Amino acid sequence: MEKLKELREKTGAGIGDCKKALDESGGDIDKAVEILRKKGITKAAKRSDRETSEGIVKFKINGEGNEAYMLKLGSETDFVARNEKFQNLADSVLEVIAENSPASLDELFELKADDLSVKDTVDTMSGVIGEKIEIVDFKVLKSEGTVAGYSHMEGKICVLVALDKKGENDLARDIAMHIAASNPKYMSPDEVPAEEVEKEKEVYREQLLKEGKPEAMLDKIILGKINKYYEEVCLLKQEFIKDDKKKVEEILGDIKIEAFSRLSLV
User: Fold this and answer.
1) Running DSSP on this structure, what letter comes out for residue 148?
2) What is the domain range of residue 137?
3) 46-55 pLDDT, tens per residue?
4) Residues 55, 94: contact at Cβ < 8 Å?
5) Is the pTM of this model over 0.85?
6) DSSP assignment, residue 186?
7) H or E segment at 246?
8) Coil, strand, or helix at residue 16?
9) Are 61 and 138 in the same domain?
10) What is the DSSP letter of 14?
11) Which residues, 6 or more positions from 3, have their beta carbon under 8 angstroms from its beta carbon?
12) 212 exposed, middle or buried (CB, 10 Å; 0-12, 13-18, 19+)?
């Protein structure tokens, strides 16, 4: 435990990485430091408090068209995000997600990417490239119907959508494109938390009182504003991007959107 503590203080690396390095070095601190340095983990540890505001979001659909996977891989600069090694790393991690469907980031970090864990692979690449790289988020979407994805702004925004009917690839992609542009927070009004609705009502009430609206009219006006709010934040109530005379729920017919996910760098 003392050696583990000393190695962590020297390198800033995580407990798991330090333990592996000590095991590999036979308990030799200096060798363990060198092992971590070669893997780029010490550099990655020192960069851990930096921001990764750039990067790439990528998605992949399986061969049957009923599963989709999405990854948000962050970097500090756009220059690195466009680097071929960084792009290849994103593809490699996305493939691991597609093969294993992990349930959490912690589970993903422990999976193998070639000879190393995903976490060690990312840390090593961070050392090679020279700036912080991190897996920010990932999504897995499965359906008995249709899944589709859409990428916008050269990988700055990606969306996955699942519909409950098979063979609806064009519609699913159109919905994904709409979500990329409109960024809904919820599927429908019944998903909006009650406290959020009450907060909006309070804001509207204060605004209306300042405008001098009669007290007796407030509830009716607020109801109209809340319905307008639903049109902004709820996917089904939004005006469809390809036909603003129709709501998204109208263009679906008897098809249901089972789920959607949106990851963005902007």
Assistant:
1) E
2) 54-142
3) 555 567 889 9
4) no
5) no
6) B
7) strand 243-247
8) helix
9) yes
10) -
11) 22, 27, 29, 32
12) exposed
